[in-house]
Write a structure and sequence with these properties.
One of its GO terms (molecular function) is glycosyltransferase activity. By secondary structure, this protein is α/β, with parallel strands linked by helices. It has 16 helices and 13 strands. The chain folds into 2 domains: about 190 residues, Rossmann fold (3-Layer(aba) Sandwich), CATH 3.40.50; about 170 residues, Rossmann fold (3-Layer(aba) Sandwich), CATH 3.40.50.
Length: about 375
């Protein structure tokens, strides 16, 4: 069995379980995580730290000089036939490391790294963003392959000047054996939303839409799982619209609990929209997870979402930022539960066909085979 180095500067982030899931389903490659800061233990015994601290002077010198320094002396890294970096920003770091130890690099672009405007990245004042802006073109030229997680991201990469022959569109899979339909209907009726409390997720639009239909469906609640800087604003909005007693903010939840809530939901809704920076939803793995549970999805025609949700077939899509249109879509499914069940079952079928993690990870390993030293 070959090894592959999985590069992520800070790992594992709460919202990035897909990286662990993808690595866990590799069958012909053994993952070695190459990280700068390990936030907590992961289910792998082969994590190799590349630095004691992301913010130490050695790291700053590395970023400024683009030299891998002592990292290249790690024999464990030298034995890797391939590095796979997640996110373009991390790819800039991984490129220097890969070239220092003379192995190929594959980089996956997941969203903001392809959609956020250069001005927004520059104004963020983040050192990693500055390095990304300075060296992204070189990264795209010198990496062995650039993986786009959707056709939408592929088009954005092409618009940025990425060589088309370098781009491989590859959907990240989800575990369809873990995300399964409920055996029986839930005891309560609720719309589920799972997402960070960030403007781009459109949770405020969902609350406004729910307030418009709440009186017609008094037995239905809105359950929101997630946390973030806008929590207070969202709770205040629910109070102002008179639905605070019907909107339940559960905060961040363990992955297993999220699955339980998802399986019992009547509808899943996350109406994402384009942020001021241009950041957009690349695909939305959470939509595939809901569909795998045979839950119909109501979302927006935004970013890569139409690749995950087939409008009128596995869910219903509204224009982004339009609370009135979103309310109409929710109302349709709450009033016609048979339609919701049909959309949900077709969603499960679609995800098993297109996004099953074993199938998709096997395709990823085929990409590794093409470039592994």
């Amino acid at each position: 069995m070959k090894n592959v180095g999985i590069c992520r500067m800070v790992f594992p982030c709460v919202s990035e379980t897909f990286i662990v899931e993808q690595a866990s389903h590799l069958r012909r490659y053994h993952p070695t995580f190459v990280v700068a800061r390990l936030l907590r233990e992961v289910p792998f015994d082969n994590v190799k730290l590349t630095a004691a601290s992301l913010w130490g002077w050695q790291e700053r010198l590395f970023w400024l000089t683009r030299q891998a320094g002592g990292r290249a002396r790690h024999e464990a890294l030298r034995r890797l036939p391939l590095l796979h970096a997640h996110f373009g920003r991390d790819g800039v770091y991984a490129l220097a490391l890969a070239e220092a130890i003379d192995i190929p690099l594959v980089v996956t672009y997941h969203g903001f790294d392809a959609t956020a405007s250069p001005l927004a990245l520059w104004c963020s004042r983040g050192l990693m963003n500055y390095q990304f802006l300075l060296h992204e073109a070189a990264l795209q030229r010198r990496a062995a392959a650039i993986i786009a997680v959707s056709d939408f991201i592929r088009e954005r990469l092409l618009a940025k000047g990425c060589p088309p022959e370098k781009i491989i569109r590859h959907y990240i899979g989800i575990d369809t054996a873990k995300f399964t339909p409920a055996e029986r209907p839930a005891d309560e009726r609720y719309i589920l939303c799972v997402g960070r409390h960030a403007k781009r997720k459109g949770i405020d639009v969902l609350i406004e839409a729910f307030a418009r239909i709440a009186a017609r469906h008094p037995e239905v609640a809105l359950v929101q799982i997630g946390a973030g800087a806008l929590t207070g604003e969202l709770q205040a909005l629910a109070r102002r619209l008179g639905v605070a007693g019907r909107v339940r903010f559960l905060g961040a939840q363990p992955h297993a609990r999220v699955i339980e809530w998802m399986r019992g939901a009547e509808i899943f809704s996350l109406p994402s929209r384009t942020s001021r920076s241009g950041d957009s939803e690349a695909l939305g793995i959470v939509f595939n997870e809901a569909s795998a549970c045979a839950v119909p999805v109501v979302s927006t025609r935004h970013g890569g979402i139409p690749e995950a949700i087939l409008d009128g077939e596995t869910g219903l899509l509204a224009p982004e930022g339009d609370a009135v249109a979103l309310a109409e879509k929710l109302d349709i499914l709450l009033a016609d539960r048979g339609l919701g069940r049909r959309l949900g079952l077709r969603g499960r079928e679609f995800v098993c066909e297109q996004f099953d993690i074993d199938t998709q990870t096997a395709k990823l390993e085929a990409v590794y085979d093409r470039f592994a030293a």
